[in-house]
Design a protein that fits this description.
alpha/beta, eight-stranded parallel barrel, two-stranded antiparallel ribbon, 10 strands, TIM Barrel
């Protein structure tokens, strides 16, 4: 496993990481989570991603129990949380957003659920137009100075808002955001490749990307319908159906021969393609079974197959998307 520096920091994250969204607490119980974490660590993964909103806190509770029972040294792994959506089903105004009150309380609650003394990474899960940027930056700076957070970042923030936060931090000598967590895959590229690229170059920004398989679309399993037991059949995931347009299915159809020509399952090709972007610090994987996780982790070994010629062929295949 390769370990990549996170933007302008000295922190090194595994190129592939494991996330808790959807699966922890909804599809996986404690013993399964322990097995997933153990397999990922055995394969070199050192970064485990979570958020207050995942299962309304249940995903963090499960990860915390699993980490506690596995007994790993705290200095050997990286854990994140995110705040914005809240951890209750119908949050009050003070239980969501990026106000100083919610950010501090959400951090304390995440630490309690995860059974940790500090968070390695703490993300603002979405921008909050109702909270001044200065309040957000100053609060994150406070949590870092208190030792409750080591680094902070954002998730799906417009580059202009992110730039505003970085500028505020520089002007007022605060710890600013050093990492962004956007969606990035073969079907969703604009924000990473155009909007964030200048920030990755200067002042430097790490990217821990999510949904490398476009919520399973890039496995090819949805080409002829929605199989039973898949993510799209889970309650609350109905919005994914809107992504299954004829254009998307056609793009997947054009990508399949490329993966076949390399002797790779389509999902491994898609994950390896994400890793080829030099701005990506870590690609966050999700899996609902050990076999699925093994296959996804095998994507790293496929990297050498994606040479310049293959990447060019991929661009041509997606040209009409």
């Amino acid at each position: 496993m390769e370990y990549r520096r996170m933007g302008p920091t000295g922190l090194k994250l595994s190129a592939l990481s494991l996330g808790a969204w959807v699966t922890f607490g909804r599809q996986l119980g404690l013993e399964q989570v322990k097995s997933m974490l153990a397999l990922a660590r055995e394969r070199g993964v050192n970064f485990f991603d979570n958020a207050e909103a995942y299962g309304n806190g249940a995903a963090e509770q499960l990860m915390g129990r699993a980490l506690h029972e596995l007994g790993w040294r705290r200095d050997s792994y990286i854990v994140s949380s995110k705040a914005f959506f809240g951890s209750v089903a119908d949050p009050a105004p003070t239980q969501r957003g990026l106000s100083r009150k919610h950010l501090i309380e959400a951090c304390h609650q995440a630490l309690e659920r995860l059974q940790l003394d500090y968070l390695d990474l703490y993300y603002c899960h979405r921008p909050d137009p109702e909270t001044p940027i200065g309040e957000v930056v100053d609060t994150m700076d406070l949590l870092i100075r208190q030792g409750k957070v080591l680094y902070w970042g954002t998730s799906e923030w417009p580059a202009s808002t992110l730039r505003e936060a970085i500028d505020h931090a520089e002007r007022h000598h605060r710890f600013g955001p050093v990492v962004e967590q956007p969606q990035y895959n073969l079907l969703h590229r604009e924000r990473v490749e155009r909007e964030y690229a200048p920030l990755c170059e200067r002042p430097g920004l790490g990217l821990t990307t999510w949904s490398p398989l476009a919520s399973g679309i890039l496995t090819g399993k949805y080409q002829n319908g929605i199989p039973a037991g898949t993510r799209m059949q889970l309650p609350g995931m109905e919005w994914l159906h809107e992504r299954l347009t004829s254009e998307v299915r056609d793009s997947v159809r054009r990508l399949q021969p490329l993966a076949d020509s390399l002797g790779l399952p389509l999902q491994q090709f898609a994950i390896a393609w994400c890793l080829k972007n030099p701005h990506i610090t870590s690609v966050i994987l999700g899996a609902s079974s050990l076999d699925q996780l093994r296959q996804n982790l095998d994507s790293y070994a496929a990297l050498p197959k994606l040479d310049t010629a293959v990447m060019a062929r991929t661009e041509r295949a997606l040209l009409d998307f």
